[in-house]
Amino acid sequence: MSRLSSFAGARRRIALLGAAAALLALGLPAQAGVEVAGQSVGGDLPLMSANVDVLGSIPMPGVIGARFKDNVMYVTGVEGLRTFDVSDPALPKPLGQLPLPHFENEDVSLGGNTLIISADQFVGFPNMIYVIDISNPALPTLRNQFQINVDAHIGNCVHDCRYVFITGDTGVYTYDTTTGAQVGRWATEIGGTHDIQFDSAGYAWVVGGNGTGGWDVTNPLAPRKVAMTDARGNQSPYNDFIHHNSFRPDVTPGVPGDVVLITEEDYLNAACAPGTTPGVGPLRSQTLNPPGLFQSWKINGPLSTTSPAVLTPIDTWSIGEGVLPAPEDSRAASAAFCSSHYFTESGGLVANAWYQQGVRFLDVRDPANIRQVGYFVIPDGEVWAAHFAPTDPTQTIVYALDLAHGIDILRINRTDALNSVGTTMAPSIVSTFPALSAPSEKWGWGCRIPV
User: Fold this and answer.
1) Measured distance CA(204)–CA(179) in Å, rounded
2) Domain map (residue ranges) of the chain
3) What CATH architecture applies to the domain 70-186?
4) pLDDT tens-place string over residues 334-382
């Protein structure tokens, strides 16, 4: 089958999923055995814990990443950039768009009045950096673009996007966004790099094939390492493929603590089941390397450029802890869809995207005892990111970015979630439609492409 015909089939499947999503927007549950647009839907739609409500759904097939500034949500997907007014977080309103087909730009970045879109080489297109003017969020415009000679997996802005840190190849590459010139390379000890997150103190946390490290980027042209995971940062079971993204929570506003939360992207366990690899926390009782762990790591000592601190693992949580035991649930998602992905944290509660396993809410107030306290899973969905709405003072509204159909607007009862004893009864989901994405030729399932 040609790529074009495959894409047409995917569009038809997305249309079916969009019809299913419309049931969510109307607040109508779809029960097992019902038909949506002439197709049988296996399992309830959606599957969610009692402390999660669905407020609505925004149709946007191909959605991948989002970032927020003031009252605006900037969302990127395979068709380009869209902006939404989220001053009312429960009811995002469309503002504008910039058609710009690209892939993959998982973690869109912005600074000042500039937004960066990075594009991996894909189907003959070169690695590109697009510089977008967002001074008028209702009319984003392309200010500049340039081709680069390294994999442009994810771009992260510094100095209001005067410079951009590019991950993908070995290490991180620094580019000047006014000239398109490469002006630096660093973090080579991470190997293949995936993304960078900045804590409230301004330190850059780089994740990738060899683990996770922290850098002082006060001078973006000469970053200095201040921390690094120990040997387990690039060993099984903590890193069977890549450390994917991270976050260092504050202990008080503006003062980050000594814990770094990290997701691992990995697809070695096709059954999405518990395993037995010895280790800390839940890993003590597992028999197979679980696919794509959520992890907590402790920073031991001060962040120092002369004697970098060492990070050691504290605890893990696996999707295998959130499936029904046999024989109640013998279903298992395919290997491509069981890994953790992008998450956000707010007040000790994590909203973690888990591809076909939906959104999982984790209590991380005790980093040595990570617990699942809620879930939201749509059969045949593919959630790439989950964001607490920054404009929501209650921090109960979450945007789930689902590549299959769009953005689901969720509300979690924080009081119930954080006072619960935890829930391990979230079902795993079997896909009733063909896969919505496929592995890239170079990066495998770590860099997925729509089919």
Assistant:
1) 23
2) 3-69+191-450, 70-186
3) 7 Propeller (2.130)
4) 444 678 999 999 999 999 999 888 899 999 999 999 999 999 988 778 8
